[in-house]
TrEMBL record:
Official protein name in the record: ABC transporter ATP-binding protein
Record Gene3D superfamilies: P-loop containing nucleotide triphosphate hydrolases (3.40.50.300)
Keywords: ATP-binding, Nucleotide-binding, Transport
InterPro entries: AAA+_ATPase (IPR003593), ABC_transporter-like_ATP-bd (IPR003439), ABC_transporter_ATP-binding (IPR050763), P-loop_NTPase (IPR027417)
Highest taxon, organism lineage: Bacteria
SUPFAM superfamilies linked: P-loop containing nucleoside triphosphate hydrolases (SSF52540)
Keyword Transcription among record annotations: no
Keyword Acyltransferase: no
ABC transporter domain segment(s): 4-238
Any one GO MF annotation of this record: ATP binding
Amino acid sequence: MTALEAYKLRKTYRQGGKLVEAVRELSLKIEPGEVLAFLGANGAGKTTTIKMIAGLIRPDTGWVKIAGCDPHRNSKALQMLGAVLEGNRNLYWRLTPEENLEYFGVLRGMNRKAAHRRGLALLDRFELLHKRHTPVQALSRGMQQKLAIAVALIHQPRLLLLDEPTLGLDVEASQNVKALVREIAQEGCAILLTTHQLNIAEEISDRVAIVQNGEIIALEPTARIVKQFSDCGYIIEFLGELDDVRTRKIEAIGAVVESQKMIYAGTPEGLYQILNVLSPLPLVQVKQDRADLTKIFLKLIGESRAATVTHGN
Ligand SMILES: Nc1ncnc2c1ncn2[C@@H]1O[C@H](COP(=O)(O)OP(=O)(O)OP(=O)(O)O)[C@@H](O)[C@H]1O
């Protein structure tokens, strides 16, 4: 059974007398064992979507089903959901890992003994068994993050929501969490992952959804999207200041402009148009580059913005 189905979700907020359409007709599905990376710039609508999926915000229209159950109508859906949403705030800092796991297991409807047993198994698997009696506040950040994921898995959910699981972790802790995410998926849990670290998304996701202005602008297998875009990325480095008019023209072609550099993943014709607009600023180099998710993301966001400018909305 499909682990997550979200259908035409829509949410509008009222902000200082103005309406903000945070999410508009957003649909997605995740199958068991699949990791979907949910990507988007700040304010794109990711958190609002995830909160609607987690049953924390009611959509204006549309619906969510977790393993066939709507979290807004049937509390059973929440038994099939695990979430690590805002950092590791799902933990009690003064309690030990063992106590946290048992507490949350019972809260999710498990009997105490079963929660204890599963908690110990998770601690063992997450290499935290030696810290089981240490208060959470005295654990390292990486350990806290692993524990937060363990707590979210205590009741063996079908769907795990992970918000920035590797943020602020060092290289080793980050590798550790990435490997765990893959393992959890291999055991059949579906994972919806949000991150701004696109290299992480590229490494561990099966599919990528890119959201902009509350809408999905790309939803594809990660390998396919990277392959599809390979060899079509250009980095253009130049000297001097680019004025606003020329910046807007170049953005309208679909490039993403940074300081003294722009990234364009389009056709050679588009590249020449950009060079024309740039002229007579001195060029440092124009190089073709292997596609990675960062460039693809910038390209799609750039194109989508260009389309918005062209259509004038
Ligand atoms: N409680 C709220 N009241 C009013 N507007 C809100 C509220 N929450 C979010 N918004 C607005 O909705 C839009 C989408 O916000 P959201 O937090 O879902 O984006 P996001 O993709 O998670 O961003 P980030 O990557 O910065 O966390 C933004 O314009 C934001 O300002």
